[in-house]
Structures are given as structure tokens and as C-alpha cells.
Amino acid sequence: MTKIGFDSEKYLNLQSEKILERIDEFGGKLYIEFGGKLFDDFHASRVLPGFEPDNKIKMLCKLKDRAEIVIVINSNDIAKNKVRADLGITYDQDVIRLIDVFRSYGLYVSSVVLAQFSQENDSAKAFEENLKEQNVKVYHHYAIKGYPNNIPLIVSDEGYGKNEYIETSCDLVIITAPGPGSGKMATCLSQLYHEHKRGKKVGYAKYETFPVWNLPLNHMVNLAYEAATADLNDVNMIDPWHLAAYGKQAVNYNRDVEIFPVLNTMFEQIMGSSPYKSPTDMGVNMAGYAICDDEVCKEASKQEIIRRYFKALARERRNGEEPAESVKIDMIMKGNGISVDDRRVYVAANKLSDERGCPAAAIELDDGTIITGKTNDLFGCSSSMILNALKYLAGIDKEVDLISKNSIIPIQDLKIKYLGSKNPRLHIDEMLIALSSSAEHDENAKKAINQLPKLRNCEVHTTVLLAHNDEKFYRKLGINLTSNPIFKDKNQAH
What we know:
This protein has 20 helices and 14 strands. By secondary structure, the chain is of the alpha/beta class.
């Protein structure tokens, strides 16, 4: 059974109380910069078992009578068609998606900010028209020469003062974005400038789940975050400002620590004095207080580090890149006694592959049972393994054929003769379609297909890199996949 290490209900209560407390501290209005994902936060759910992927948005729903959402997008990202790697959609498409999702939860999206806007950016202007057709207010913010270091210019009528003032009506304003570098912090500070010029008392806070500030620097949860952001060159570190002010250690990451003196000066210029003594002070994250089983979270985080390592290796291999991200994660692993052999499915899959001399896969089910599968004439190793796992879960003897060979051969012929495939073996989606067809007249096949939900959150390792088809279906099934950075066919194209 999956072990729980995190109390989501406690977290939701603590987090909402902390934000309300921060609103009161600033006299009744708070701009809060939301980092990370507001929903579908699967990294958090993997390293903090019990954390629900949509916890943040659930927490906002507790505050929705007092909250509104402003989405920021960098206009240059629109022009460049910047894509979210995890979703495969452009940033402007993601803004539309975010608006729809927030509204589906009953949350008020008041406006969209086009950061670094210019009249020459036709893509941004077209996107603005699209938003207006959907009755979304749009504001323009502009690039400021010398940002963020030219503070006299930034905090002036020629800096933040040129930005359009965002009309807000709630005492909690959530500033979010489709990805990093969108301009969330600059939008918050610009609003602080405009609000204070109008004589209004407002404050700023930052909400990011990771790194968890009140866990040790080398805690597995924080190390997992460092592994997850290895491609960004983020490094977790002790907050020196917090240590100097309070004599207590707190964990932050390098970018927030490096920018704090600049932010502090901006606060002083805008508000008369800075409300914060450290970048950690700016945060309102309460995740560390909701951990109910530290050992469970440590083990889950260790497994996440290994997964990140294999994903980095796979990406570098597919793209023909020099190892950089994988080397960083490897250093984290070696420095903290973590080995790939700590991933049970890695050991099982490679053992079978070595014994049989062919690609193999292994899955760890919720009860700890490991089921394997290898490539054969009919199925790839993933399809074979999933079929074996479904048989096990349904209590069906592994020798029973759930899909007749006679029904598979026509599919293989179709692939080779008419669809240009060189691989006749059935991929996961093809195998499942064939199994569903069998389920119409075979009770065992029906029992097997009904077990699919039980594969969610299971761990899988394959000894070769998979076709995008199979990788996509692992994601659809909610399975955590890793692979050896090896192409099945040495001539296989990237």
C-alpha cells in the first residue's frame, strides 16, 4: 500500500491561515507571487506522498471570496512561440487554458498582463485581441532599461510609472504565469509602486513550495527540487540574510538570495522601509509543517532524484547533447549515498534483459510486487509487461492468452504493409485496443482491462528508450517511467 507522508488537509488549513495573516499584516491588501504550478503539481505529489496535485488551487478556493487572479505573460514569449515542455503547448495557449481552468473552479480571473509589451510585437497584439473577444481585460507593462539594477529609473514615473495600473477589487491578488521569466515579480512591484502613489496600503509576498525553507539544506525533499531544476542552474543554499537577522538557518535558492538586496532597496524606495529582513521572510509556504512522516517523504524524494537522473540521461541521448544536467544530478546522488540500484524496477528490468538478451521492462505494483515483460514476436517489452501486470491484478494465470494471435497478425500486417512501420510489435495503445476488442467476448480480457486504474502511480523501468507513442501512454496511465539511455536499434533516429 502507498504510504502517506504528507497531511493535505492540515496543509490547506495552515496555508490559507498564513495568507490571511499576511494580508492583515499589510493593512488589508496583498499581492502574492505564485511560483510553480497551481494545479497538476505532480512533482510535489511524488516527493510528498499525500500531497494532492491540485492542493494549491483547492487552497485558493477556500479564499475565493477574497481573491482574484492576474495572469502575466512575457510578450516576447508570444512572439517566439515559447512552448511549455510538460504540456507541449505555447505560453499564449496556456494562458487561455489557465483562464478556463480557474473559472471552472469558480475563481475570478480579473485580467492578463502583457509584460515587456511593444507596439511592434504583432503576435502580442493579436493575442490581446483574442483575449478581449473573451471579455478578458488586458494591461501593458513595458521593458525598463537596466532592469533590475537601475533602481532610480525603475522606481520612477519613467519606470514602473509607465506601466498601466491594473484595476483590482479584491484584497488578495494572485499573480501567476504560464512559466518562469514571465514577469510575475515585476508585475507585483509595479502594482506596489502605483498603489502607494495612490496612498493605499498594500504588501507583497511570495508563495513557492520548493525548496522547503524549514527543512535542512540536504533534506531529500530539497535535494529532489535541486535535481528537478538542474537544467535551470538553480542551487539550494542557506539564506545568509535570514541567518544574519535571526541566527536561524533557512533554505532558499540562489536566484532569490542574489536578487534580495535589489528587492530590499526597491521596497525602501516604494514603501519608505522594507517589511522584510530576508528572502525567506517574503515567503508564506507552510508545506514543511504538514509533513507527517519524514521517512516516507525522504524515500519518495530519493526515488524522484533517480527518476530525474534517468530523464536527464534520456533527454541528452535523444538530443545528442553533452551530459550536463545528468552530471549535476549524479553529483547529488553520489554526495548523498543514492544509487540507481535503489530503484527496484531498474534492477529487475536489467536482470531480465541480461538473462534473455532482449529489451525488457519491469513495473512495481502498489503492493510491492514486481512484474516484468520482455520483447517478443507480438509485443514490445512495455506492452508485454502491462499485459502481465493486468493478468496478475485480475488473478488470471500468466499462461492464458487474452489476445489471440489470429487477431494480432492482421494489426501487424496493417502496420507494416500500409502504415510504413518497421516494427510489427504492438505498442501499448495498440495492445490495449486489441485487449478491449477481446473483452467483448472474453470474460478474462474484460477482467484484465478493468484493472487499468490500479496501474496509476506505479513505477516502471525499461532497458531501452521507447517510442513517443509508448511514453505518451505511460503519462496517460499515470505511471512513473524511466529508461536506460539506449536505443533499441542503434540506427534509430532521434
